[in-house]
Amino acid sequence: MAKHLAVFLTLLLPLLSAANPLVEDICQGATVVSESLIGKDKNVQMSTLSCPKLLPNVSKSKPFLARGASASALNVCGKNCTTNCFIPSGGGPNPNECNVIADALRYESQNTGAIFQVQNGTTGNSVLMTYRSCKTFFTNQDLGPLEYCRTDWADLVDYVAFNCQATQNAHGGNCIATDQRWFVQVQTATT
What we know:
Signal peptide: 1-18
Strand content: 25-35%
Number of strands: 12
Keywords: Signal
Order of helices and strands: HEEEEEEHEEEEHEE
């Protein structure tokens, strides 16, 4: 029996460590810290990710290296960011499905709280939302934790999803904070 168990575990181990297609294009070696369903209908998958190393094609920005970063979270609600659409066209998310994520964020803002916190480093520095063809994530590139408003993220999701489509020769995009501490990305969810 022990031999059969060892064979079973040997076969199961590669399946357990297989890359998750929803996170493998966000960062190398991503691990899921937590998962839940959010929104009025609990139909949007929210995952907190630990990303030891961001992939170079995820964001064109460089990490903001602040000296003496505080242990308390810095609130970046309402801060400006610059939108970049990914070219060429084709393969972008359905903007109406992205709007479901935006609405779930607004619902959570009213029912859970307006602000969420994102840790730094490898302690859960990215929050991923997925619904059907749409995937969006908020990534903290600062040395300390950040706080961000759910309604700000919802507004960015709607803006990028509807303005970075085939008609703009694009397939999704991102919005990078002007001080490069964080970014929000909207793209196609591949499963």
